[in-house]
Amino acid sequence: MTQTNVLVTGATGLVGRHVCCACAAKGYNVLAMVRANSDRSVFAGLPINFVDADLDRPESLPAAIEQADIVVHSAAKVGDWGPAEEYRAINVVALEHMLRAAERTGRLKRWIQISSLGVYPPRHHYGSDETVQPELHGLDGYTQTKAEAEVLLQRHMREHGLPAVILRPGFIYGPGDRHAIRRLVERIEQGKMKFLGRGDRLLNNTSVENLCDAILLAMENPNALGETFNIRDARLVTREEFIGTIAKYLGKPMPGRVPEAIGRTIVGPIERIAKLRGRKTPPFLTRAQIKFMTLNLDFSIDKARRLLGYNPRVDFQDGILAALDDITGKNPKPKAPQAAVSASV
User: Fold this and answer.
1) pLDDT at 271
2) Domain range enclosing 36
3) Fewer CB in a 10 Å sphere around the end CB: N or C, the chain?
């Protein structure tokens, strides 16, 4: 039987590398889309085929996608700072090029779009489900263009019969994280971390292993086609548990607190000054950070459980410890036997 070709964009990122490994383990022929100068050592010894392409170079995308039966689109420009146009170029414009190229091949069976729970309105959520409409004027370029990307997907689904599934994970963590958890570790170790507000509201934590399970289900389950699903862990944690677990692991005291009202009062002037100065990196406080630290972010996964058969198996305490072990190099797990490397394509 002919193998199914699965193209994974953002293959060297946190989500992409886990998806590549999971698909290879299930017998798919994995096409890992990578930049020409990317570090591919994470795939050493695995049966992964590399496809050189870059979302910054639209002309490279048609050749990358021509052999794909399934696309898992996990690549994106991420962050909470910078002009929306910079995010839109990758998260929307490049996506449009890829969709058109995929549709021209005539072989695409399924497109799995990794979106974000950040597309929902920036307010408290207590079990919000997929009937709540995305917010097209987000707090930052990332969430705004993620919502715009969903609109683009929906249009291609209606007008061109694109066989797509949209997955909306929350805050993704796990082994291989190079950004969010690593920055938190650095700030806690340096004594620069502070709680903003009460700390007892829920985070939309999403283990990368649980997300990979959802992606495989979205690839294989016929009920998934044309649907949008919220994806998160079964048990959500408070910010106190989230930050406290990391601090305890590092042997550091629980960070102090800053009243939420103070943060909300000063964030506007902080952002305005940073923009006037042309700052390229985010200031120490942004509206997106206030959302992350203060809002109750509980989103329903009932639809994913019902239609996909999604049953999150990794609890936060296990997933975050694995992520911290990976970042710090503590308690390394023995490597599994590896298969021979496939040739690049």
Assistant:
1) 79
2) 5-175+205-233+299-313
3) N
